[in-house]
Amino acid sequence: MSPVLFELLLRSIWETVLMTGASGLISLVFGLPLGLALVATDRGGIAESLWVNRILGAVINGFRSVPFIILLVALIPVTRLIVGTSIGTWAAIVPLSIAATPYYARIAEVSLREVDLGLIEAARAMGGNRWTIIREVLVPEALPGIVAGFTVTLVTLVGASAMAGAIGAGGLGDLAIRYGYQRFETSVMVAVVVVLIVLVCGIQWIGDRLVARLDHRG
Amino acid sequence: MNQHVTAETGDPVAVEPAASQDVVRLVDLKRRFGATAALDGVSLTVKKGEILGIIGRSGAGKSTLIRCLNGLERPDSGEVFIEGREISRLSEHELQPLRRRIGMVFQHFNLLSAKTVEDNVALPLKIEGRTRAERMARAAELLQLVGLSEKAKAYPASLSGGQKQRVGIARALAARPALLLSDEATSALDPETTRSILALLKDINSRLGLTILLITHEMEVIRSIADRVAVIDAGRIVEEGAVWQVFADPKSEITRSLLGGIRPQLPPEIASQLVAGEGTETILRIDVAGEAARRPLLSELSAGVPGAFRLVHGGIDHVQQQPVGTLFVAVPGADARHLAAVIAFLKDRGARVEVLGHVAGPV
Questions:
Q1: Where are the CATH 3.40.50.300 domain residues in chain B?
Q2: Rounded to an integer, what distance in angstroms lies between the CA atom of residue A121 and that of residue A127?
Q3: CATH number for the domain whose boundaries are A3-214
Q4: Which residues of B touch A121 (CB under 8 A)?
């Protein structure tokens, strides 16, 4: 591999890490409260409101049913509004975040639902309000699942960010298509695949370690 | 209702002293779930410092009842007074400070797995807004009380069932409640652990003077620690009284059936031979309690009414330091006058006597 290609590879790795990290963080910041809202507003939840629950559910399902490549294009006006441009790495972070947030919300919802209702009842019996229940019971008890779900989301984002090459976002996927595939640079293709494997394994390893440390359920 | 109103007017003469001692007063509580009435007009009082046990089969309404006391469940009608204040129509927000006056212990412990033992115990204080130093000091004090000081930094998953319930009790006491609710606290524990948890509750009751209301389906729990018992069936209190009195003289069928496991019963091989008509021996059931159980009843009988009799089964038990006994006695012969004399003699001395039937030969 030529030094130019190697430099290109390094830049692509950075772009992939940036896209995955930034959109992952945004999906965590918005997806977790969304997951909490789904659980809280459901029947028997701590802030039961069935119509809010149905609307939230429908919006999330709507976003989740659109294939990412279509979302990428359809969201161009929104991206331009937020980032100022519809091309490049930062521009790709908008559709990636919008796709990952409902995805992560559903994953967080599953973990939060698994929290024993007896624990919520205990917190209520102690005189705790909704905020206490969220802060002291729901989130801490579901934390291993919330972190494991975030790991899954990050790995999914690594894959999805490869598609963002379609709007000139760069990244490893873009590199593999333009150099590895279209210019028959097999070494680039192999390098990209190896880097992706290492990246995904690294994320999963860190995630698993974190979950093991957080999980006291015995 | 009366004393509540007068208490508010501040008239010191009108306040009944007895009423101010009631930590809990329930008036005609009703709650339906669909077609079934979980509570069908329950009225009860729990006095300050006493342990009231509510016993019933599963589905009798006891869980609904205990949840009405801290507003986790709302009655359809009726009133719930906690320390003189009606709470059944308060909003969730208004209930929150009140719930801090009421500790609750659960069958499945309901400890937070993500928190250490001391953080679990301190949670009610965190909800109250105490500083970390205050919380940790109180948690240490309580863990010492329940004998788990060395487990302060452990997570609940590493504890045994009995230890988990000790943590549950420590947590329920953290905010210095006026009332402790125990929802089948020992039902998930083995008999030995059950005894130690009950001893702990009794100790807390006598040392701190804490009022305890517990629900259970086990008479053994009532017998070990309750002062008074209320029997609930199909949403109604069918029987209520001092534990030893209810044990000595259960009025309702459900109470008798719940007592079945721990009171003497005629052995089934004898019960199966009983006939209603004639026989060579008559089997009597003699129930004695209190004074009647303290006297030498059987020697008095043999001296007072000549004729042999045979003790078949039974014994004297002690409930709340009161002797409570049931004896099954076989009186030989078909002489109706002799039998009547025996029964009259026993009844004269405060025993309750029931002719169970006759048997053809010695059993």
A1: 2-259
A2: 10
A3: 1.10.3720.10
A4: 72, 106, 110
- Give yes or no for A61 touching B (CB within 8 A): no
What part of B 65-84 touches A (C-beta under 8 Å)?
70, 72
C-alpha to C-alpha distance for A70 and B77, rounded to whole angstroms: 57
- Give yes or no for A122 touching B (CB within 8 A): yes
Of residues B97, B156, B181, nearest to A127 (C-beta): B97
Encoded amino acid at B172, one letter: A
Predicted TM-score (pTM) of the model is 0.87
Q: Which helix (H) or strand (E) holds B214?
A: strand B211-216
How close is the nearest chain A Cα to the Cα of B87, in Å?
14
The ranges of chain B with pLDDT < 70 are 1-20, 334, 361-363
A155-190: pLDDT as tens digits: 999 999 988 877 888 899 889 888 888 888 899 999
B324-363: pLDDT as tens digits: 999 999 998 767 888 899 999 999 999 999 999 888 866 5
* Closest chain A residue to the Cα of B98, Cα to Cα: A127
Cα–Cα distance between B241 and B340 in angstroms, integer? 32
Domain with CATH 3.30.70.260 in chain B: 268-359
d(CA A97, CA A151): 15
CA distance B5 to B237: 27
| Whole-angstrom distance, CA of residue A189 vs CA of residue A175 | 8
Q: Where are the domains of chain A?
A: 3-214
Best interface-test mutation with B: which of A126, A136, A214 has the largest number of B CBs within 10 A? A126
B102–A121 C-beta distance less than 8 A = no
| Superfamily of domain B268-359, CATH level 4 | ACT domain (3.30.70.260)
From A122, which residue of chain B is nearest by alpha-carbon distance? B110
- Give per-residue pLDDT as tens, B188-241: 999 999 999 999 999 999 999 999 999 999 999 999 999 999 999 999 999 999
Interface pTM (ipTM) of the complex? Answer: 0.89
Q: Does domain B2-259 have CATH number 1.10.10.10?
A: no
Of the candidates A141, A165, A29, the residue with the CA atom closest to the CA atom of residue A89: A165
**In Å, how far is A145's CA from the nearest CA of chain B?**
12
Q: What's the pLDDT at B20?
A: 60
A69 touching chain B per CB within 8 A: no
